[in-house]
Design a protein that fits this description.
This protein has 12 helices and 11 strands. The protein is an alpha/beta fold and 338 residues long. Helix 7 (179-190) links the parallel strand 5 (166-171) and strand 6 (194-196). The structure holds guanosine-5'-triphosphate and magnesium ion.
Length: 338
C-alpha cells in the first residue's frame, strides 16, 4: 500500500504526476483546492505483493489502507478516471479556479461514469432554476443585441399556449426598425395579445392590467442593450424599475469567457436573477456560460438549441449541461408544471 500527496498547479499536472509516481491503477482518495492549485491524495494497493519478513506497516499506511477499502466498498469497486472530464473541461476553455472546483466535485461525487460525475458536479456547483410555464410574476428578458430575446419570448409563449395556458406579450423595443413587427407576427400565430410600452409608465400599466382575468404568462421583451453603454443601461433600468418583474438574462453561447463574465455581471447588477442560454447549437465551446454563471452567481433556467419556436426551450440541469459539454446531445429533462 503506497499513499502519495501531490501538490500541483492544475488538475492535469496533478494527474500526470500521479500516473508517473503510482501508475495507472492508483485510486484518488481525495482532492481539494489549495492556494497554489490542487492537492490530490491517491493510493495504490500493492498489498498482494509479499511483505518483507518482520516489517510492520506504518500507522499512516494502515489507516490509508482502511480508508481505501472503505472507498472501494462505497464505490462498488468502480474507480472513476477523471482524465476524460478534465479533457472536456479543457476543450470548453474552463479556466482556473472554476476548473479545479468542478473537477474536485466530480471526483468526490461517487458517480461511476465521467458523464454522471460531471452532471453531479455541475448540480453541486451551479444552481438550476427552470422557469415554470406560468410564473407568478411577469418575466422580463434582457440581454445583448441579437442574443435571442424575442425568439425566446415567442418560445415561452408557445410553451404556455401548447400547455393550454394564456400568454401575453409586451415589448419595450419600440425604437428599432422591425422590433415590434417581429413580435406582432408571433403574437398573431400564438394568439397571445401584444402590448407596446414605449415608456416605463406604459410598461407598468401593461404588465399589471386592471382587467387581468385568469392567470397568464406575461413576457416583457426589451431592446438589445449594450451593457457597457451607460445610456442604454439607464434606459433599460427605467423599464426594469417600472416592471417589477422577474428578470432573466438571455445569454448566447459562444462568447469569450471574460466578456461573458463582464456582460453577465452588468445585467445581474441591474436585477437579472437567472440565465436563459441560447444558441448552444451554434457554438462548440460552452465554458463561457459556466464562467459567467459562476462569476455573477446566477442560476441557469432554460436552454435553447434551435431558432425554431415550437419546443424550442428545454429546462437545464447538471446532467443536461454535462451532456452538452461531452457533446453527446441533450437528454430529456422533466418539465416542471406550474
Ligand atoms: N441557431 C440558433 N439561433 C437562434 C437561437 N435563438 C435565437 N436565434 C436566432 O438569433 C437571431 C436573433 O434572435 P432574436 O430573438 O431576434 O434576438 P434579440 O435578442 O431579440 O435581438 P434584438 O432585439 O435585435 O436585440 C435570430 O435569427 C434567431 O432566429 C438558438 O437557440 N439557436
Ligand atoms: Mg428582439
Amino acid at each position: 500500500m503506497r499513499v502519495r500527496t501531490i501538490n500541483a498547479r492544475t488538475m492535469p499536472e496533478a494527474m500526470a504526476r500521479l500516473r508517473e509516481e503510482l501508475g495507472d491503477d492508483a485510486i484518488i482518495i481525495s482532492s481539494e483546492s489549495s492556494r497554489r492549485g490542487i492537492i490530490l491524495r491517491a493510493a495504490i494497493d500493492d498489498s498482494a505483493a509479499p511483505a518483507k519478513p518482520g516489517a510492520a506497516p506504518a500507522l499512516e499506511d494502515e489507516l490509508a489502507l482502511r480508508l481505501l477499502r472503505r472507498l472501494r466498498e462505497d464505490a462498488g469497486k468502480s474507480t472513476l478516471d477523471g482524465r476524460e472530464i478534465e479533457a472536456r473541461l479543457s476543450f470548453h476553455g474552463l479556466a482556473e479556479p472554476l476548473r479545479t472546483a468542478v473537477m474536485t466535485a466530480a471526483l468526490g461525487s461517487g458517480a461511476e461514469t465521467p458523464l454522471e460525475a460531471l452532471g453531479r458536479a455541475l448540480d453541486q456547483h451551479f444552481s438550476f432554476k427552470p422557469l415554470p410555464i406560468v410564473p407568478r410574476r411577469p418575466l422580463m428578458l434582457v440581454g445583448l443585441p441579437g442574443s435571442g430575446k424575442t425568439v425566446t419570448a415567442a418560445k415561452l409563449a408557445a410553451r404556455a399556449r401548447l400547455a393550454g395556458e394564456a400568454a401575453r406579450l409586451i415589448t419595450c423595443d419600440t425604437e428599432r426598425t422591425g422590433g415590434i413587427g417581429q413580435l406582432e407576427a408571433f403574437s398573431r400565430i400564438l394568439e397571445a395579445p401584444l402590448s407596446i410600452a414605449a415608456k416605463p409608465e406604459m410598461l407598468k400599466k401593461a404588465a399589471y392590467p386592471t382587467d387581468a382575468g385568469k392567470p397568464a404568462l406575461t413576457i416583457i421583451d426589451t431592446p438589445g442593450t449594450n451593457p457597457f453603454d451607460i445610456g442604454e443601461m439607464r434606459t433599460l433600468g427605467g423599464f426594469v424599475k417600472a416592471a417589477g418583474a422577474e428578470i432573466a438574462l438571455v445569454l448566447p453561447a459562444g462568447l469569450g469567457s471574460e466578456d461573458a463574465i463582464d456582460i453577465t455581471r452588468a445585467f445581474a447588477a441591474l436585477g437579472a436573477g437567472k440565465i436563459i442560454v441560447t444558441k448552444v447549437d451554434a457554438a462548440r465551446r460552452l465554458g463561457s456560460l459556466l464562467a459567467a454563471a459562476d462569476a455573477a452567481k446566477l442560476g441557469f433556467a432554460q436552454v435553447s438549441a434551435t431558432p425554431y419556436i415550437a419546443n424550442g426551450l428545454e429546462p437545464l440541469n447538471g446532467l443536461r449541461l454535462a451532456r452538452d459539454l461531452f457533446g453527446v446531445g441533450p437528454a430529456a429533462v422533466q418539465e416542471q408544471t406550474p
